[in-house]
Amino acid sequence: MGKIVIFDWGGVIMHKHPVDNNDRQAIIRTIRSFNSNLTGEEAWDVYAKTLIDENGVYISRQDDELSKIKWVDRINTAGNFNASVDDFSARFIAEQLKVGYYKELVDFIHSLKDVCQIGLFSDLIFCCTPVLDEQVDLSQFDYVWLSYLTHLRKNTEDAFILVEKDVQVSPEDILFIDDTTVNIENAKKRGWNTCQAFGYELDKIKDSVEKFIGYKLESESSRSKK
How far apart (Å, rounded) are the C-alpha atoms in residues 29 and 31? Predict the structure, then answer.
C-alpha cells in the first residue's frame, strides 16, 4: 500500500465536453435562473469575471463565510440580480447534479482501494463539494485535496508539495491522472508518474494504473464470479 493513485475531478470524473450538458452549461443555467435576460455568454462572463477579487484572490475558492458573501455579492452586481449565498449555492448544486459523470470510472477508482491508496485532487469552488461527494463518495478516498480548502491551485507547485507532505511517499510512488496539460506538467516536474486522460478513456487509465502498480488488475466480472 506504499503507492497512491490520485485523480482529478472535472473532465476525469465529471463530464466536461458534451456540448448540451457540461459543467460550463450548468453554470450558465445557474446564472440565467436568476436573470433570464442574460445570454449564455453573458451569464458565463458574470461567473468567470467574478471568481477573483480586486486583490487577485480567488474568493470563490475560499471556505470562510465572508469570502462566500463577497463572491455572491459580486455575482449579484455583475448579473443584476439579488441572490443569497444559500440560494445561489442551492441552484448551483442542483444544476451541477444534472451533469453526467463517468460512473464506470468511479467504480474502478473504488476498486483500487484493495491494491493502493486513492486520492482526489481538484480545483473547485465551495458549491461543488456536495456534487462531488454525490458522485464519488469522498469517504472512500484516503486523501482529498480541494483548492477551496487548501487555498492552493494545481497551477502552482505549492499544491503538489502539499500533497507530497501529506502522503509521505516518494514521487515515483504517486500516479496522477488529470485532463489538463499544465497540471500534468507540474506533476512531472515533481517526479510524479502521470496519465493525461479524460474519463471516457477508461482503458487508457486502467493501462496506466496497471503499469504503475506492476501487474494486471482483475476485471469487475472476474471479481464478481469469486
Answer: 6
> Which uninterrupted H or E stretch holds 117?
strand 117-122
Segments in the chain below pLDDT 70: 1, 219-226
Indicate if 160 and 204 belong to the same structural domain: yes
Per-residue pLDDT, 226: 46
Instruction: Determine the 3-state secondary structure of 196 from DSSP.
Output: strand
3-state helix, strand, coil in the chain (%, to 5): 55, 10, 35
Domain boundary at 96, 126, 145, which?
Answer: 96
Q: What is the pLDDT of residue 192?
A: 98
Instruction: Kindly report the pTM of this predicted structure.
Output: 0.91
DSSP state of 5: E
Out of 96, 113, 144, pick the residue that ends a domain. Answer: 96
How many helices (H) and strands (E) in the chain? 11, 5
Residues 134, 169 within the same domain:
yes
Residue type, 120: L
Contact 13, 102 (CB under 8 A): yes
Residues 115 and 219 in one domain: yes
Domain membership of residue 199 as a residue range:
4-17+101-224
Task: Using alpha carbons, select from 3, 91, 107 the residue that is nearest to residue 43.
Answer: 91
pLDDT of residue 20: 80
State the total domains in the chain.
2
- Structure-derived torsion over alpha carbons of residues 78, 79, 80, 82, reported in degrees to the nearest 10: -100
**44, 12: one domain:** no
Query: In the numeric block, which cell numbers belong to residue 113?
Result: 482501494
Digit-coded pLDDT (tens) for 157-167 = 999 999 999 99
